[in-house]
Amino acid sequence: xxxxxxxxxxxxxxxxxxxxxxxxxxxxxxxxxxxxxxxxxxxxxxxxxxxxxxxxxxxxxxxxxxxxxxxxxxxxxxxxxxxxxxxxxxxxxxxxxxxxxxxxxxxxxxxxxxxxxxxxxxxxxxxxxxxxxxxxxxxxxxxxxxxxxxxxxxxxxxxxxxxxxxxxxxxxxxxxxxxxxxxxxxxxxxxxxxxxxxxxxxxxxxxxxxxxxxxxxxxxxxxxxxxxxxxxxxxxxxxxxxxxxxxxxxxxxxxxxxxxxxxxxxxxxxxxxxxxxxxxxxxxxxxxxxxxxxxxxxxxxxxxxxxxxxxxxxxxxxxxxxxxx
Length: 325
Description:
The chain is α/β, with parallel strands linked by helices. The chain contains 10 helices and 13 strands. It has helices at 4-13, 32-38, 119-123, 126-136, 170-181, 195-200, 214-217, 257-263, 276-287, 304-313, and strands spanning 20-29, 61-69, 81-85, 102-106, 110-112, 161-165, 185-190, 205-208, 221-226, 240-248, 266-267, 295-300, 319-323. The strands form 2 sheets. Strands 1, 2, 3, 4, 5, 12 and 13 form a 7-stranded mixed sheet that branches. A 6-stranded parallel sheet has the order 8-7-6-9-10-11, sandwiched between helices. Helix 4 crosses helix 5. It is globular, with a radius of gyration of 19 Å.
């Protein structure tokens, strides 16, 4: 990884492109692509791995204040607090550069930061919250879906029975809150230590997956959001009623398409994309507490290695955030 000093000099000194904003970063949220990048993307199939080399600056989720405005940017001024998912997915292999003191952001990717919460809370939200929102409520774009031929379509939530697997994690804890906000009855699957948190976030029932696999005890669901995903996501097909839907956040490795088809179950996923418009829409929900970012821990930017080591240990409750002086 490149150093924060190098990132500061590179981002703060080069001219801003048209319709870009220079942001003085105060906090950076960690996400799985950050540690996948550091690990050489071994979790991805070889054909999906980037060809780029090092040095590289990871990080996509930032909260900070406007430091400079490129040509054509309106509605913002120096000192305004903003937050963003920076250049995702196109910049994740070397263009997002979030682990820095300054970063240039396309104006279309950022929004005024939610009022009433701090930079740590704001930086924890963008990728995970947008992922949950784009899966469950509004995809918000018409870009081709790299994960499947068909466009992903959210399903109705009001009055539906929904299981969130991995409900205490980054995407999972936001998906739980969104499903409740939209009127669903939510069953949360996570380890027992998260029980109180998940009930506070609105879960109607919490299943300790270590004691009881949720697929063994839950039936007649309308939707399963598998925030863990991967090859094991097919185990949830038997929990769904005909006409139900399974949304694996990480769909690679799923092999149950034929079984899903026979049962009349829709299996669908999408690729989260930067959207300042949606972050602007979501900001009031963060401001008034209807959606809340849970923080597992914070680390100074200089201690990013320790933050990644914490992420490697797994069982994260909410999000990990780097703070930038």
